[in-house]
Design brief:
Blueprint lengths: L4 H16 L7 H8 L3 H13 L3 E4 L5 E4 L8 H9 L24 H17 L2 H6 L3
Antiparallel strand pairs: 1-2
Length: about 140
């Protein structure tokens, strides 16, 4: 399994908003500077987070972003599935993928399925608040 920069940066943005937002709109340029992430790259991630309802976005001179929920109400698994599409460790477990012809007789599919369940379970148990507090 490989988590892309999109997934990693999305989590960093949510952590940043949780730590620095305090209910105010935070300009994307501030987040980009603090997180040392290209503003252009963040401009591609934020619509995804906004459309999913994870952040509020307001345009204009006094605009910016804020969380829609408390940090304890976001979990890492939801954010990563949103940005990555899947956390499946092998292609045969990806939803809507081409069916594997060996799946019924494959000795390793149960291993990969168990790994996927453990990864999802762990990431679903970790909130943005947990990430801030290193409580996982």
């Amino acid at each position: 399994m490989y988590i892309s920069t999109k997934g990693r940066y999305a989590l960093r943005v949510l952590v940043d908003l949780a730590e620095s937002g305090n209910g105010r709109l935070v300009p994307l340029s501030e987040i980009a500077e603090r997180q040392e992430i290209s503003l252009k790259y963040l401009e591609r991630i934020m619509p995804l987070l906004t459309k999913a309802g994870l952040v509020n976005g307001v345009s204009g001179k006094k605009g910016g972003y804020s969380l829609t929920k408390k940090p304890s109400e976001y979990n890492a698994g939801d954010v990563l599935r949103l940005t990555e599409g899947t956390l499946a460790p092998v292609s045969c477990l990806v939803c809507n993928s081409e069916p594997c012809l060996r799946k019924d007789k494959c000795k390793t599919v149960a291993l990969w399925s168990s790994l996927e369940n453990k990864v999802n379970s762990f990431l679903d148990s970790v909130t943005i608040e947990d990430i801030i507090n290193k409580n996982y």
